[in-house]
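Re: your question from the hallway

Yes, I did run it. Sequences:
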Amino acid sequence: MPLLNRKRLCLALGFTAAIALAACSGPTSEAAKSSAMAIKEPDGGTPKRLRLLTADQYLNTLAYVFGPDVSPETRFAPMTRTGGLLSVGTSLGGVTDAQMEQYQKTASAVATQVTNAGNRGTLVPCTPADAKAADPACAATFIAGVGRLLYRQPLTAARSKEFVDEAGEAAVRLKDFYAGLGVALEGMLLSPKVLLVTETSEPDPKNPGRERLDAYSYATRLSLFLWNAAPDDALLKAAESGELNTDQGRAKVVERMLTSPRLEAGMRAFFDDMFAFDDFNNLAKDNSIYPVFTGVTAADAREQTLRTVIDQLITKKKDYRDLFTTRETFISPSLAALYRLPASPGWTPYEFPADSPRVGLLTQVSFLSVHSHPGRSSATLRGKALREILLCQTVPRPPANVDFSAVENPPPNLKTARQRVGAHLSTPVCAGCHKITDPMGLALENFDGAGQYRDQDNGAPIDITGVLDGKEFSTVAQLGTVLHDHPQLPSCLVKRVFSYGTGSLTTAKDKDILAYLDARFAANGYRLPDLLRTIALSRAFSEVAPPPVKTAAAN
Amino acid sequence: MTQMNRRRVLRGMLGGGAVSVGLPLLNCFLNTNGTALADGAKMPVRFGTWFWGLSMTKDIFVPKTFGAGYELPEEIISLKSVQKHINLFTNLTAFRDNAEPMCHYTGWVIGRSGSAPMSANDKPGETLDVTVSNQIGRTTRFKSLTATATGDLRSTVSYENANSPSTPEVSPIAFYQRLFGADFQDPNAPTFTPSPRVMARKSVLSGVMGEIKDLETKVGAEDKARLDQYFTGLRGLERQFDQMLVRPEPIAACVVPNALGKEPPRGGEAMLIAARHKMMTELMVMAVACDQTRVFNMNYSNASSNTTKEGYEKPHHTTTHEEHVDEKLGYQPNCSWFTRRAMESWAYFVEAFTKIPEGDGSLLDNVLIYANTDHGYARTHSYDGMPAFTAGCAGGRVKTGLHVNGAATAGTRVGYTAMRVMGVDIPSWGTKSNNTSKEFGEILV
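Structure:
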């Protein structure tokens, strides 16, 4: 691709982690694996969607098209978390007047950056005959190249001409070719074909009477799924050439995407969404209670978990379930203070010793601090998060019009959270939900509301024993193991990844495809890249099902 | 009268290029006293909302008498300075009928949309502020403005429709830039030069709008509605561009605030929220005074208020559940502490509108503000005994200074009354038991 090669090279080199797809061995027995691999892929597709491009997808796309230096400050409206994911909310969300205003301001900032004197030499692939006048030929070259990448398919000749004409008129009005080009670029960046992802379909020649995503829609679905960005030049070429219409071609394309450094950005976006890390955007602790926890700590806690996930699941291709038993992670100076470790500059790999209570993601500061109050821990919030985020279970909302006197400040001789929340469990109206959440949350009471270790609560020893869905534990490491072996842990990931990739809530209709994906995930040793490949190449991902009659929430 | 006259504005001509433009509130429209429009019509009335989470404690919040001249109980003593400008409604009910009860959700959704949500995934339909803005908000630069003092982008009780919450401004610095940054046309600036770039931008929009038609053939009915909304957003941009091309008439009350300094630290501690609320209020009031919008929303705290008190480990919500009722006081003291902070900010908000002169009175005279919350008695999270407020006399259409007994009727009556005052011609509002066609006549002139 001749356009913007230099910038793209910089982008590629900018990724910090090279993806090493090392071979690995899994614990799954060969017999179980061959049995699972024999499960036939079910028929059925997923609905075509109209999705809003997220701010990250927009910025990642701009970074690819124009290079990382073109990076406007912007903030799109948050989506409504639906079925556990913000990304599913993009299939439902609308564009308000205020959001449109934000789109326009961002477009204006991008156009200014792209066409300014410092960047135009690199980002505009031709030089106008007269920089103070219109130059249709040069404008057409720019618009065709950039338009194809932003629109995720070639512009029609008619639309391309309209943009060239608009650039020319604006150049004359403003007496500046580049200003005119900027106005046309602003128009492109306001396009519903850029900011909305409208999936379209065509008859499937292999399955008469049925529809499949057309090649450009499939390419876009793939790219948003795996890279959290619009398709690159090679992927669009695969769509243009027909390569994406063959099984062999798709497999080749998906393999390239899975081995690309851009997979890291894609999976960071997925786990940030699944783990509800948007809660970090507003996380603050009471400085008088937790002086060690600052805004930097919060940002680093989020980063620590994402680094751990990428290292374990993408770089080392480990078993997903091991995230909850691993002692390997990364530490920054601000986190070192909270974990009470020696500080080193920057991010450094670190492995907690075998006798440390820090084991798995549940004991990382991210999970512990987000699911706590600003001034104290919360067994209920932590237990609820474990159930809903990691196991895809639903914890009922608390009832209204309840006399809470039974759970009001307990006598001062009750010092620990276990003693204090005991009242919930002995009060019928509360016990229904709190029995679901509190036992798991209490197992994490060795960590305060900022995620710092403690062995006492108000001077009393902490009892962290409990039961998770019938499996007993007496240490936090054992809780990690029980969670690791919980059958809903991997199936929850499967459900979320599938939903994330297709932009749809999973419903009862997806039972067969989810069972198929569960089996394949298990057979492949719960390796994330294998799961991504299976989904990306599945018929459910590329074939079209009619939309559900009503988009009722399913978890 | 300045260089611009009514005819010039109405014609909306600029340098030979036809410009369709909304009509801002300009001095040239006023009579010589500035008390009414020149044709004798009343000044335009603006509409706002205010929200706080977790309501109140009845025994120290609800006045003992109704009507005028009521004595303020201790939890709302901070309203003294604005008592004459507000109406307090108590003993209102949010009826959930057969819907699932959802703490911190059902109550405010009914108060804002008129209907009980059936589940947590059942988002409110069009809220009353949007209904009003569709009526009166299409002539200003912003159809409406929404801000929150919580710092949380998700903290909103305004919805265009179930899939489109009004994202609030969370940063005073960013809000300032949006209102008074480069795109602001200062009505009192000595010179005015229309931007040719803006004219160029506007011309590109029509092509972009044309793309919607192409997409509409490819999507189902639900998504078509989303495309329609996108189109409406583009029309809104077009309106903004139009207004940027017309010299605004001077507005005496419009004083561009000084640029703000530092962003307040993030966090939900009550003093931080109060500071953020003050900054947002100053900007919002001036946005109204400068006729940048005629509809506005402010959130002091979110539903289920997670406001904290420095050095106190329990957030407001947890406090309502866990704090003892003090035997001597007869209420939960820390819980009430949080409500008192909310009421201080409510008083600040109302008072801010009184400080802007307009005509022979203040901006508040031509404003109606509706304030509500998510529950009744905070300790039990009830749906009955709920309070609400209005502030301002809506251009003389509303009496103020009253404590009104809701008599356990639907709280939607307050919202319905407000919409009727704002000229929304609907025979009733709300569904099932929340449906009402009965205004609170006590407050109507």
